[in-house]
Amino acid sequence: GEDMSILKVDTINEKTSGNGVQIPGHVVQVVNTLSNTRTNTTSTSYVAATDVVATITPTSNSSKIYVQYDLSYRVYNNAGADSIMFVGISRDGGTTILAPNRLRSYDYGNSGSLLESTVSASFLDSPATTSALTYQVYLKNQNASNATINNDTPDANSSVTLMEIAQ
To answer: Are 155 and 148 in contact (CB under 8 A)?
Structure first.
């Protein structure tokens, strides 16, 4: 038959920092934050969603970071028009909004519009660093809407999940 090797250990500890076991495709670490802090804005420029943020420090330059946000939101307009808001996430306060979503409630009766729901999005980042990375959720409104994350606190929750994937 084929030659077979079996290695049995109870614990594998990294001897020298930065030389830990990296198996391509495997998750090295997971960071998750949960927030029920309410953020409301009528701004048409992106503003940070309070506490809907997570920080991860990659162990390797070649790692990819799987980024996911799960948001509880409410968009409202009482001006007899559709209500529209945008949500997304940025890395280290950058102006580029990653994994953006346009959330819209239609006005059919000239009495305004309201939508309260959840939205999730994810993307794979390749930051090429071992420095700490902060991923922050942002929101803005369009069309004179009120845009809110975590409207019904404390029952409404939003989260950011970060996974370092070895390459």
So the answer is: no
